[in-house]
Design brief:
The protein is built from eight helices and twelve strands. By secondary structure, it is of the alpha+beta class. The strands form three sheets. It has a five-stranded mixed sheet with strand order 1-12-11-10-2. A five-stranded antiparallel sheet has the order 3-4-5-6-9. Helix 3 packs antiparallel against helix 4. It is elongated, with a radius of gyration of 23 Å.
Length: 302
């Protein structure tokens, strides 16, 4: 499906940018050597066939909204409802055991009894927090973190995501104020690889596309590292194709979707929208599927 890219593998230390201390602490990719360094000159083609895959969330007349890795996995969260009730049931069972042990011992608190009771209470609370975490996935948390590429203004907008608390289960997580970055000067792209285990002795290599947003005025300090699109195993052709799709959209008036591509199948009512002024600058509200299909057909005839 894809031609061989002209971008060589890198697999060495990052040569161009530095990461903020917060990113180094919270994002594992910031501590990894990039698998590929995509050209900082966005006019340079990757020499691969562009494919949007399952990454585009919304299409505006002058902008494209692309989803993230978190959104890829959040599309299918109904199993989390079972997990939530299972964890809550476990928490109730463990807490009942604590009450039963203390009632049968007539609340005689020796040192050993206090230790066991404290351990059981901590276990019960942890299970309860796990249940709240899974319930937030089903009912409360946003499902994705849209990144808007405005080709008319040549700006990229992000909505920083602040994770919710675990033991502070009432903190569900939220998105911060939108931040804009200049497409030409402040946006870089990397492909990162990592090893994960699918079983006791079964290791696989995964790949993710990283969008690097540089802090204004620094020239090389990465303020945000966003994992765009979808994760792939074995080869990074998916990430190359997605970035080429975005690059052609921004640089060459490319289509918002390639022929055969569809929008990400997710509940957009739980995906945050950008403020009205940013949407207006993108040409207006998101287009429906029929209007998008017509744009794709028009581009195909050119």
């Amino acid at each position: 499906m894809l031609r061989e890219t002209t971008v060589a593998e890198w697999k060495s230390a990052e040569p161009e940018v530095v990461f903020s201390s917060e990113l180094l602490k919270n994002n594992a990719h910031a501590r990894r050597a990039p698998f590929r360094i995509l050209p900082s000159d966005h006019g340079e083609s990757l020499n691969v066939d562009p494919v949007a895959f399952d990454a585009v969330l919304r299409v505006h007349p002058d902008a494209l909204e692309v989803g993230t890795i978190r959104g890829e996995y959040a599309k299918n969260v109904m199993w989390s409802k079972f997990s939530a009730f299972f964890m809550w049931g476990g928490a109730l069972f463990v807490f009942s055991c604590v009450l039963w042990l203390n009632i049968t011992s007539s609340f005689s608190f020796s040192g050993a009894a206090l230790f066991v009771s404290s351990l059981f209470c901590f276990t019960s609370y942890s299970l309860f927090c796990f249940g709240c975490y899974f319930w937030r996935l089903v009912k409360l948390s946003s499902l994705d973190d849209p990144v808007m590429f405005n080709r008319r203004l040549r700006l990229v907008y992000i909505l920083p995501y602040v994770k919710g608390g675990f033991f502070k289960f009432w903190e569900k997580g939220s998105h911060g104020t939108p931040i804009s970055y200049k497409w030409d000067d402040q946006i870089r792209a990397r492909i990162y690889s990592y090893i994960y285990f699918r079983g006791a002795n079964l290791a696989s290599e995964g790949f993710e596309l990283g969008l690097l947003a540089l802090r204004e005025g620094t020239g090389n300090e990465v303020e945000h590292l966003i994992q765009l699109g979808v994760q792939s195993n074995g080869f990074d052709s998916t990430q190359l194709a997605l970035w080429e799709h975005i690059r052609q959209y921004m640089e060459e008036d490319g289509p918002p979707l390639q022929a055969g591509d569809k929008l990400r199948a997710t509940d957009l009512s739980r995906v945050p929208e950008f403020p009205p002024e940013i949407v207006a600058a993108a040409g207006g509200p998101a287009l429906d599927q029929e209007a998008i299909d017509e744009l794709v057909r028009q581009k195909a005839r050119v």
